[in-house]
Fold these 2 entries.
Entry 1:
Amino acid sequence: SGSKDDGLLPKDKKKPKKIMPNFFLAIRVSNPQIHSAIKIVQDSITTYNEKLTPALIPLATLHLTLMVIHLENDEQIQKAKEVLNQCKISLDPILQNSALTITFSGLDHFNHQVLYVKALGGEEVLKSVVNIVRETFTKEGIPSTDRREFSPHLTVMKLSRKPMLRRKGIKKIPEESYVSWVDMSFGEESVNSLHLCSMNKKKEKDGFYKCEATVTFIDTANEPASTEAENTRGEVDEAQELNSTGDEEQEATSSSTALCDENAGEASKMLRKTLLMRRISPRS
Ligand code: C5P
C-alpha cells in the first residue's frame, strides 16, 4: 500500500509516509484442533491451485493480532515491554481464570487479499482487551501504525506473503478454493497470555514469532503462591512448518534464544499450574 505520486496533489499536500509496523501484540492460537481444521482449508486451497501454497500461513505462526506498532530501537523495545507489563495490571481482572475463550467459526476475507477465520464467541471481552492494550500503548507514546478499527481475524492465507503471485496474475484469493469451508467451526482458544512479537526477527525454534515479551494470566482460583517464571517452550509444531520460508513481511534476519512461552494443550495447562505471575525480563 505504498503511496504513489499520482501528480494530483501539490508536493506540500502529499500524504505523510506510512510508518511500517515491525512489531505486534498478539494472542497465539495453538489449539491443535484449530490447527487441524485450518489445515483442511489450506489443503483444499493447495488442491485447487498449488501455486497458492506460498501464501498460506504456517500453522506454527497462527495468531490473532491485537495491535501493530513500530519500534525503532532497543530502547523502544524495552519501553514496549514495560507498557505490556502495565497492560497486564489492567488486564488481570479480565483475563485471570481463563475468562476469555475465543470461538473461531466461519471464513471471511479482506478485499480478497487476506483469508481469515472469524473470531465470534468471546468477541466482547476480546474487544475490551484490545481497547485496553491500544489505549495503554498509545498513552505511553506507542500508537498503532494501523488506523483501521479492530476487526478480529485469524489469518490463514494472505497474498502479500508472496508478491510474485500478483505478478503472475493471481490478484485475488479465488473463492472456489475455500468455498466448501466458509461455515466451518474451527474450535476454541482459551486466552492465557499476550505476546509482543517481532515481525522481522528469526522465528523461534517452535516456529512461532520471536516474542520480546509475554504476559501470562493465571488461574488464581487454584494457585496458592507466586513464583517467578521459568522459560518454557512449547511443543514443536509440524516439522514441515519449521522449513517454512516465512512471511515476506515477517522474515528472519537474526538468531536468538527462545523465551516465548505459549503453546498448546497439555503444555499450556502445565504452564498455568506452575506460574502465578510472569514478569517480563530483559532479553539477551
Ligand atoms: O498477521 P495478521 O493476521 O494480523 O495479518 C492480517 C493482514 O490483514 C495484514 O496484512 C493486514 O494489513 C490485513 N488487514 C486488512 N484489513 C483489516 C485488518 C487487517 O487488510 N481490517
Note: Confidence is low (pLDDT under 50) at residues 226-246, 248-284.
Entry 2:
Amino acid sequence: MTSTYDILYERLAATFDRVQPGAEPVLRQSEHGDYQANGVMALAKTLGRAPRDLAAEIMADLDLAGIASVGVAGPGFLNITLLASFLDQQLREVLVDQRLGVALPTVAKNVVIDYSAPNVAKEMHVGHLRSTVIGDALARMYRFAGHHVIARNHVGDWGTPFGMLIEHLIDLGEEQALASLSIGDLDSFYRAARKTFEEDDNFKERSRQRVVALQSGDPETRRLWQLLVDESISYFAEVYAKLDVTLQPSDVVGESYYNDMLESVVTDLEAHGLITVSDGALCVFPPGFTNREGEPLPLIVKKSDEGFGYAATDLAAVRDRVTNLEADELLYVVGAPQSQHFDMIYAVARLAGWLPESVRCEHVAFGNVLGPDRKMFKTRSGETVKLVGLIDEATERAYVALEERKSDLNDRQRRELSVQVARAAIKYADLSTERQRDYVFDLDRMLAFEGDTGPYLQYAHARVRSIFRRLGAPWDGASASFALENDAERSLALGLLAFPEAFHLALESLQPHRLCVYLFDLAQRFTAFYEACPVLSAVGHTRDERLALCELSARTLNLGLSLLGIDAPDQM
Ligand code: ARG
C-alpha cells in the first residue's frame, strides 16, 4: 500500500515541481488541519514572489482527490484536511497490511552497523550500554525497512595490555583466572594485572616480551590470548541475552581480525603518497584537520615503536567493509568523544580511494550516562558500574512494582514480566533521549508506569489487548469501516496513519527517539479515544470500527516497541 503521507507528498511534489523543478513541499502532520505543507515560503523566497499568491497558485493546481479542504495560514502554510472517506480507505488497507503501511525499498542496501564493541577483559560500562541499545534499535529498524544489516561488534581484543593480561593469567593459573573471568569479574582481573605491572619490574619485562610473542604468532601465547578473548566474549553474550540484543557471536569481528591487513593499509597509503614520517611515526595529515594551535593534525597509522594502533585498524575495517562486504552505508555507534577520530578515518579513506562518495558514513554519536549527581555515572567508590548489576536491580524493582499493582498474574508470570519491564525501562530511557544529549540514570523514573517511559508504553499496549480478552470470542475485523465521527477517533486514526513517516524520519536521521516520540503520542491519542468512546458497549458498525482502531493501536505499539528492541507483553 502507499502511505497517506506518500500519497499527499507525491501530489504536492508534482505541483511544486511544475512551479519550480525539484522544489520541496516540506510536508508533515500538524495540529491545524491534518497535514501541513511548509515549503511555500522557501519557494516564494527563491522566486521572489509573495508567499500567499504562490500558495493560491499551488492550491489551484493541486489534485484534490481525498482532500476535504486546503487553506493558507500565516505567512504561507498550506493546511490540508482530509476526507473521512479517504481516511477510511487508508485505514482499511493498513488493517490488512502486516507492515502497517511501511513500503519496502526499491533497492535493498548493505548497511554495516558497528556497535557495542566492549573490550576484552574489561567490564562493559554504561557507554557500551548506549552503543549496544542504540545500535541494536538501528539494526532492527534497518532490517524492518528491508535492508541487509551486517552487524560488526568491533571488540577491543588487541594491543599492548594483552602482554600483562596474559602474564597475569599465567600467574593466577588458567583455572582460577578463567573462573574469575567467567563470573564477569573482568575489572578486578584487569586491575590486578595493571597493579602488578606497575609494581613489579620483572613482571613488566615479562609482559613486554609477551606482547612480542603475541605479535609474532607464538602458538602458546596465542592460545592463552584466545582463552581471554573467548571467556570475555561469552560473558558479553550473557549481557546481550539479558538485554535481549540481536548481536550474535558471529558478529564479533574484533580488532585482531584486521591484523593481517595492516601492512597493506600502509603500502596502499604510501602508494597514494599520503604517508608522512613524523617523529618516527607513519602519519597521514588529512587536509582540514588542525589542533588548537592551528597545526595540521596527524592520523597516526604506525607508531614509532613499529606498532599499529586503533586508527590503522579502523582504516583497514573501512576498506574491508566497502570492498569485501560491499557496504552502501557504514554506521559507527560510538560515543561523541570519538567524533574527530571517525572524521579523520573517513577523510583518509576517501583520499586513499577506499571510500567512494556514494557510500554514506555516519558516526552515530551519543552523549553520556550521568549519575544522580549529574556527573559521569560511577559507583560510590568511583568504579565503572557493571551493566549486569543495573539490569538485575531494575528487574528486582520491576518485580516489586508489579506486585503492588493488582492483576491476575501469578508469581511466575510476574517474574517473567519483571524481566521484560526492566529491559523496557532501561532501553526506552536511553532511546527516548535525543542521542547526542546526556541523561541521568534514574531507575525510579525509568520504571514508572506513568509518563514517557517504556513500562508506560508496554502498559498502554497491554491495556488495548485486554479489551480483546474481554471480548471473549475471536474478533475478525475484516468488515470494519471507519466513519470517524468522533474527534478522538479521528485523531487516533491520523496518529495510526502517521506510523510510516515517523518510522522513516527516525531511520533517516538515525534518531530512534523520534520513534519514541511518535509512540508516546499515539498512546496518548489512544487514551483520549478510550475515554471518549466506549468500545465494548458500543453496537453494530460503531463497535466494529472502534475495535478495529484498538486492533491497529495494539499492532502499531507492538511493532514500534519491537523496532526499539522492547517486548510488548499482552498482559501486565
Ligand atoms: N572498543 C572501543 C571502545 O570501547 C569502541 C570501538 C568502536 N568501533 C570502532 N570501529 N572503532 O571505546
Note: The two ends are 33 Å apart (CA to CA).
